[in-house]
Design goal:
There is one protein chain. This protein is an alpha+beta fold. The chain is about 30% helix and about 25% strand. The protein is built from 8 helices and 15 strands. The strands form 4 sheets. The chain has a 4-stranded antiparallel sheet, with helices on one face. The protein has a 4-stranded antiparallel sheet with strand order 9-8-14-15, with helices on one face. A hairpin with an 8-residue loop joins β6 and β7.
């Protein structure tokens, strides 16, 4: 039962229980309430944020992306009013679409702290429901890979087109072949800048030492599928491995995920990053621009997907070689975007090679 096992939310090293209000016909998701778990009382002084003492009491300013304002305001302002009443504070929120600070004022310090904590929990809870906007990617669209991928597509359609669910619409755009390290919800320019800075810090902290300032040579060979029934496949992907047999690429991907999860910019979905290059995806059947989805939306999307029978493809192309390439960059890629090369537009990137120009484009075809 949810009452006995409520959802736990971690913010700034503190743990909170999510308390669902009994639903009524007029209530919306914005009207959920939250309270601190025992031992983490929201009303106790906390060093996680700054409380300023003023002539009239206390004040706390906090940065919340504008897309989350509506969840703090609630339907007809009810959530905001409830927060103000229960914490005996006044909460000032910028206008719709205006980036700025939410300011909490009150005569009691504990009341301001409580309001701040509740807003943090609300924002974090509803952030998890937002579709991802960016993702960390490693491009696999070098000319040799694109050429072999197009050969793979042509041969699959020639030999397997009569199999259930197979069509040309299932195939990835060759210019957008990539590895996904993790997805991010970045809701304003400040959060994008934070992600850019963290990516650069990761390069300095561990990527340079792992790569030795050199590109990583990989082989893209063989295919595999995501689910457990080869007759009903939604995602078919190409496997990757380092040419020297090392775990350099996996180590970089896992540590990047760990750092971005710790920062709060990325949700942890797996213990390790599954390095794979999607070549066929049933999401593409209806929307060629669709991106690979994460845990939060994959379940809902799968109900609308028409799987394909991949048994013959797996038998004929089990060891298909897509080529050997050098990887030299990690991109902060924008979802649903395209740059002049055909790859995703980038909000930032780092390179492995010490001599590489970080502003230079990857070798796109």
């Amino acid at each position: 039962m949810e009452v006995l096992r409520p959802t736990l939310i971690r913010i700034g090293g503190r743990v909170y229980r999510k308390n669902h209000v009994r639903e009524q016909a007029h209530q919306q998701e914005e009207e959920q309430d939250f309270y601190a778990a025992p031992g983490d009382a929201a009303d106790e002084p906390c060093d996680a944020f700054m409380i300023e003492e003023t002539e009239r009491g206390y004040r706390c300013a906090m940065d919340i992306p504008s897309p989350l304002y509506k969840y703090i305001i609630g339907k007809k302002g009810e959530t905001k009013k409830k927060l103000e009443t229960e914490t005996r504070t006044s909460i000032s929120i910028p206008g719709p679409g205006v980036e700025g600070e939410i300011v909490i004022t009150g005569q009691q310090r504990n009341g301001v702290i409580s309001a701040r904590t509740r807003i943090d929990v609300l924002a974090e809870s509803f952030r998890k429901k937002q579709p991802f906007t960016h993702f960390l990617s490693i491009a696999l669209n070098q000319a040799v890979i694109q050429e072999k991928f197009l050969q793979f597509k042509e041969e699959v359609l020639e030999k397997c087109s009569n199999d259930c669910g197979i069509s040309s619409t299932l195939f990835q755009n060759p210019a957008k072949l990539h590895l996904t390290i993790g997805t991010l919800v970045l809701l304003n320019e400040q959060e994008i800048q934070k992600a850019q800075e963290l990516l650069k810090k990761c390069k300095e902290d561990f990527i340079d030492s792992v790569t030795g300032g050199k590109p990583i040579t990989i082989e893209v060979t063989g295919i595999e599928y995501m689910n457990d029934d080869p007759a009903m496949i939604d995602v078919l992907y190409a496997k990757v491995r380092t040419k020297d047999g090392s775990n350099k690429l996996q180590l970089i991907a896992d540590r990047l995920m760990e750092q971005f999860v710790t920062s709060g910019l990325m949700m942890k979905e797996w213990d390790r990053v599954k390095l794979h290059a999607t070549v066929m995806n049933t999401l593409f059947r209806k929307d060629p621009s669709a991106e690979e989805q994460n845990n939060r939306t994959a379940g809902r999307a799968s109900k609308e997907r028409e799987s394909f029978d991949g048994r013959k493809i797996l038998k004929l192309f089990e060891n298909f070689c897509f080529g050997e390439v050098q990887l030299n960059s990690v991109f902060l890629s924008q979802r649903f975007s395209t740059d002049s090369s055909g790859y995703y537009a980038t909000s930032g990137q780092i390179t492995f090679s010490c001599s590489a120009d970080s502003s230079a484009p990857t070798d796109f075809a």
